[in-house]
Amino acid sequence: MVRTLGIAALLTSLEACALEGQDPYSQATDSLVPGTYLVRICQAPCDPRADSTLVVRGTVVLLAHPLGRHLLPSRINEDYYHRYRNACFVFDEKPREGGTFAGYSPAGLVGWDRDPDDSLIQFSLYWSPDARYWVKVSLRSGHLVGHGASQGLYAGRAHPVDSVYGERVGPANEATCIAAAKAERR
């Protein structure tokens, strides 16, 4: 009995040490979020009847787990912000001009998680050493609703905040992410 308690105490202290060093943006495990979403990014609230403010549209896949490295090619188009790869995107066409980085990368492999401050789902849709496009959305009845914003580059110029709307169209499709990882950057 004493030995069992000693082992339990040791495991508890090891677990506490492991959690203490955990990064604040830990891997997402929310079971309601994973899925495949048709996404529209607009310069004003997206209007499904007339996308006059549409910047770009495409597919975003949010996975429940990271993709295994063995499934991916040796060179991949990925965001370096997250340690894990549990999301991807593929845009249908080049973005309309509008002072935003949304759609600059036609496809890529990224990581999603929840912001520890506001619990919003967050992920990137463009990245470079000096710029990025960051999305923060909430999940409402199977829809992603929120905003995206360009960051960096163009010092002294304000970037617009875009409207992001995604409709869930099915379960998370891992094959879409494997194809996105192989895509060429523009």
And the CATH topology?
Lipocalin
Share in helix: 10-25%
Strand order of the largest sheet: 4-3-2-1-9-8-7-6-5
Judged by helices, strands and strand pairing, the structural class is: alpha+beta
Please identify which CATH superfamily we are dealing with: Quinohemoprotein amine dehydrogenase alpha subunit, domain 2
Second rung of CATH, namely the architecture: Beta Barrel
Estimated share of beta-strand residues: 35-45%
Please provide a written account of the structure.
It is a single chain. By secondary structure, the protein is of the alpha+beta class. The protein has one domain (27-182): Beta Barrel (Lipocalin). Helix content is 15%, strand content 35%. The chain is built from 2 helices and 9 strands, in the order αβββββββββα. Strands 4-3-2-1-9-8-7-6-5 form a 9-stranded antiparallel β-sheet, with helices on one face. The radius of gyration is 19 Å and the shape is globular. The protein starts with a helix and ends with a helix.
